[in-house]
């Protein structure tokens, strides 16, 4: 497998978290690094919480980190990242926190060291607004929000 280059990210282990593993790729081709909880927390059904990870880091300019749910937790327990994908800005120096919500029927116990989410390093492009008085015309125009239908039969093939 040919893996992409890695980008070094300075990371600080916060007091009391020296024993925890840093976010890590769990397979050779994983997009995201699994992030572990630094705390124990019981999340009642329907509740949300910002879970400490015990790390802070300095993302290089031109990148961000996205915090995404783990599908296993979502499917088995209804535990997901409420603000997915969470945005970690390159100028943030505070502790990484994972905002979890319990959409299941049962309370869910997060243990210290549990892998609760995944962090994806992603490039960022910045936009510059260019005010104009007209926009170019397209076939879609202003139609949206289901305008092309929902079933395969609704779709007009393009010839
Ligand atoms: O899941 C998350 C989302 C954000 N953050 C941290 C890093 C991020 O750079 C900062 C701000 O996040 P965001 O911009 O999403 O929140 P906001 O509500 O817009 O706060 P702010 O006004 O501080 O930007 O909070 C986390 O630790 N975890
Ligand atoms: Mg913000």
Secondary structure: elements and pairs:
Blueprint: E1 11-13, E2 24-25, E3 33-36, E4 41-43, E5 48-52, E6 55-57, E7 63-68, H1 71-77, E8 79-81, E9 86-88, E10 97-102, E11 108-110, E12 115-123
Bound molecules: deoxyuridine-5'-triphosphate and magnesium ion (MG).
Q: Per CATH, what is the topology? A: Deoxyuridine 5'-Triphosphate Nucleotidohydrolase, Chain A
Shape: globular
Highest CATH level, the class: Mainly Beta
| Low-confidence sequence ranges | none
- Number of DSSP-assigned strands: 12
Strand count, sense and barrel status of the largest sheet are: 5 strands, antiparallel
CATH superfamily: Deoxyuridine triphosphatase (dUTPase)
CATH architecture annotation: Distorted Sandwich
What value does the average pLDDT take?
A: 96
The sequence of SSEs as H and E is EEEEEEEHEEEEE
